[in-house]
Fold this sequence. Notes:
Two copies of one chain form a homodimer. By secondary structure, chain A is of the alpha/beta class. In chain A, 37% of the residues lie in helices and 25% in strands.
Amino acid sequence: MSKIAILGFGTVGSGTVEVFCKNKSSYEKNIGKELDIKYILDIRDFPDSPYADKFVKNFDVIANDPEITVVAELIGGNTFAYDCVKRALEAGKSVVTSNKELVATKGAELLKIAREKNVSFFFEASVGGGIPIIRPLGQCLMSDEIISIAGILNGTTNYILTKMLKEGAEFSEVLAKAQELGYAERDPEADISGGDACRKICILASLIFGNHIYPEDVYTEGVTSITKEDAEYATDWGGVIKLIASACRIDDKKLEITVCPNFVPFESQLSGVDDVFNAILVRGEATGEVVFYGRGAGKYPTASAVVADILNALKSESKSLIWDAYRAGCVADYRKQKHRFYLRLMNTSRKNVKALFGEVAFLNRKNTPEGEIAFVTAEITREELDRKCENLDVKGKIQILDIT
Amino acid sequence: MSKIAILGFGTVGSGTVEVFCKNKSSYEKNIGKELDIKYILDIRDFPDSPYADKFVKNFDVIANDPEITVVAELIGGNTFAYDCVKRALEAGKSVVTSNKELVATKGAELLKIAREKNVSFFFEASVGGGIPIIRPLGQCLMSDEIISIAGILNGTTNYILTKMLKEGAEFSEVLAKAQELGYAERDPEADISGGDACRKICILASLIFGNHIYPEDVYTEGVTSITKEDAEYATDWGGVIKLIASACRIDDKKLEITVCPNFVPFESQLSGVDDVFNAILVRGEATGEVVFYGRGAGKYPTASAVVADILNALKSESKSLIWDAYRAGCVADYRKQKHRFYLRLMNTSRKNVKALFGEVAFLNRKNTPEGEIAFVTAEITREELDRKCENLDVKGKIQILDIT
């Protein structure tokens, strides 16, 4: 008999218990032994829950129970959750988590403890919800050198950008609607600022690069400044606007990693990823381009990834993937990397634009107001772009996706 | 030191040796021991190859060498390759293969031997080339119930159909061009008849269903009868024509499994999969829809999947996925399953069509010849459809994809 503890009975926690209990007998057949959720940790009371007798309020009960072999941390945040996960690993229990903040900020440390204690630390659900990405990436990685990853990793902002583009609506209107539908949190800050996508790309980048990459080292720009005018110009250019989190190996020692809105050309597989869906494009030297697509969030998709991790931990066949501690200087200065950019300016002339930026591709939209000029530059560093924009009235500035 | 034998030095075999040797030192770091390709089996001579000293012509050398722990079978076919794989497994060596014919016809038997000998039998490269699909599917499967799989599993036919649709060309012209470009074999029979896609969907279906599904039980229709007229009607309907291999769980005991051209709506993620690319859409009860996309063939993508399997076998952390022998009656009669169908008829009238098929959605194209009528039926079994078509002059008949 293997006994499991669930930490947190929110959306993902309750979904995990539900999926687990529904399929328990087939899991037992697969694993070859009886399985049981012994504890559910939550500070709230659930007197009417069918699992009422499993609830505990003190983590000590779980940490000190030698029967518990796997702990699923579904609390979120990196304070109390961090404490629980660390103690569980130190007590020789395997841990699985859907907590991207925890993995992005404490991953290297927790993986090291797991390795020392010879237990598993899995976090498939922390990126892309129900999309298998961490383990397949580990598999690709084993045989191939990953050159770049570019992903739509946040469903809320993707829903907002999709609606803005398809319905010509403004950001604030669509955000309000997304909150009404439950696609966006009441406090949408982590989503719309790009912070959520940033944590996820940090996890993927740490995996492919082998050193921990911290969110604070990543240039992160949200979607709040995107307007429907920019979306119209994107259409004219031949693409859509998406919040792209990307990591690209510059050489063996350096990685470019950013989260920002991008013009994504229609030819890219990422351009057709709409609404709350996520997709991750991985480019390997031998493998070429591979895309993983699916629901990046939601109770049941995330829960099924958590349960798969629990079963993997119970089988203890595959040990944790691993990365080392942060190495100073491994994140390249994003201002010095060259990209093309879309710019929308007011109160200037094509002549002036040409004088400053040389040959550019001008864009058009219906009912262009007097003095508005939009175009796509040649390749230029952000540093130089910002310098050239100093005396300009910039209304829109969006990177062009060159990892297609 | 772990020693490996490569069987077959064709495209995939030479690619495997190349990828392996290029990244050998990083693999050794990952696995934690020295690795070496000791033998390459091929009946041909390669006197100028840098690996000339490794070539052998008799499989006995490999089977009888206790130093060899992993054998990679990259010969193809299910006669000599089958004999080698069976003997290797029986000799207690792990085997990896890219050979879909072998796995689709002998999978259950070989998996059983691998289990008895406690060695691995991996075949990630047999479906989808470099796209990780077998192992992620195993992972999804562990926690979730897979309801259906629908895939574009053959790059050659997808290239042909893409060109027909985009350039308004006829099948035979595009096939000739594909052969010229090396996308299609000189003998393209296995591709254009649907046979190649059929073997691949059998492997995926065996995995999700748990019983071996044989190619001869699968209704398989190729792409040779698709015309540019049908492609024009697909556009009017709002989609494209793709060769879809699909398996769908009807109940615990029965599976519908077919390979045939389908009208795929633009809303489906499969509609945007063009040229030689492959994609596999997996629908799980909890996970929802997940799509895996990438290069389904080619020297290096396939080789990188083979090498990943070799490394997995060497780590011997993850044992083979498993399915049982064939169970009579597990494949449902495809003629009795309901779908919508596109029909193109000559020498009839809308009145006649309505009398036979009830309310249908008529389609249009430019310069429709006198007497041509195209439409999409309501749901109907193939059996009933064929009966109704008996006295009609049918020019085109294509299933509508309802697994979107």
